[in-house]
Amino acid sequence: GRSYQYLLVEADGPVGIVRLNRPKVLNALCRALIEELADALGAFDRDPAIRCMVLTGNERAFAAGADIAEMAGKGLAEVTGDDLLGAWQRLWRIRKPVVAAVQGYCLGGGFELAMGCDLIVAGESAQFGQPEIKIGVIPGAGGTQRLTRVAGKYKAMEAVLTGRMIPAREAEAWGLVTKVVPDEQCLPEALRLARTIAGMPPLAVQMAKAAVLQAYETPLGAGLEFERRLFYSLFATEDQKEGMQAFLEKRSPQWKGR
Ligand code: CAA
User: Fold this and answer.
1) Does 66 qualify as catalytic in the annotation?
2) Which residue is closest in CA terms to ligand 1's atom 21?
3) Nearest CA to 183 among 61, 9, 22, 21?
4) Which family is this protein grouped under (predicted)?
5) Whose CA is nearest to atom 12 of ligand 1?
6) pLDDT tens, 86-141?
């Protein structure tokens, strides 16, 4: 595969691993990093050998936000004209599950990036937050929307209006993370979850992700209809036949991915 300036990318069997690698600035998410990240996750998303992805940072930071140095001097015409955060849209279109493994600072755009992942494993050192208000702006890559849908209005308002950091255990109580583990277990646990998901039938995995995400997009009736259609469509796959037959024959299924 290609090499990246701001990422370390490797495959561990069916699990694609992307490590944000701009440690001197706590993985500040400059535009080029987001472009690379969308390229790397997009390549895994299209690779039939990859079934799930893990996105991580380092012990000190998952990411401390968008790159303030890159944004500081820009005006309204430039940020709109260049569509400063436009590349982030590509991240929200990844179809395979992405597990975030978060240690240390997970702030601003870093938090928004984690919330755009499908599962979040947090080390005990993780600190989440939307500090944008302290530098004269607001979250711009989903924070006001995803945080509010997960934690509710009153928790989101406090986070977005004060910029306070939310430690891992509190984030867990808010429903913001899948689980909290000791720091040294953070990446291993994320990989364990990813391998479990990678062992599931891939078309059903993709439909399951799409169906859960649809819950954030539509009223209940439309979401239920969407789910039912995807459920029915899986009966056109060989893996549905195999999965149900294997259950009845009391043996393990062999997935074909079709
Ligand atoms: N952008 C650019 N550089 C950053 C950065 C960021 N978001 N966060 C940290 N850095 C840099 C620092 O400038 C510093 O660089 P130098 O060594 O060259 O001075 C280096 O990373 C280490 O950071 P600190 O010295 O500040 O480390 P600390 O331990 O004292 O503090 C911190 C850690 C509390 C996380 C602090 O760095 C901080 O507050 N960072 C900014 C957090 C922030 O405001 N994020 C939101 C960005 S806006 C955004 O994300 C918009 C959006 O919604 C998309």
Assistant:
1) yes
2) 25
3) 61
4) Belongs to the enoyl-CoA hydratase/isomerase family.
5) 25
6) 999 999 999 999 999 999 999 999 999 999 999 999 999 999 999 999 999 999 99
- Number of neighbours of residue 216 by Cβ within 10 angstroms: 11
Number of Cβ atoms within 10 Å of the Cβ of 215? 13
* Residue 199, pLDDT score: 98
Residue 105's closest CA among 175, 27, 38? 27
- 25 Cα: distance to centroid of ligand 1 (angstroms): 6
Q: Which of 131, 103, 102 is nearest to 115 (CA)?
A: 102
**Ligand 1 nearest-atom number relative to CA 140:** 53
Q: What type of residue is 36? A: E
Contact 113, 29 (CB under 8 A): yes
Side-chain-side CA neighbours of 232 within 13 Å: the count stands at 6
Alpha-carbon distance of 65 to 75, in angstroms, equals 19
Distance in Å, CA 106 to ligand 1 centroid:
11
Atom from ligand 1 closest to the CA of residue 69? 2
CA distance 166 to 169: 8
Q: Annotated catalytic residue: which of 38, 66, 126, 168?
A: 66
Residue 32 host element (H or E) = helix 31-46
Tell me which residue has its CA closest to atom 13 in ligand 1: 25
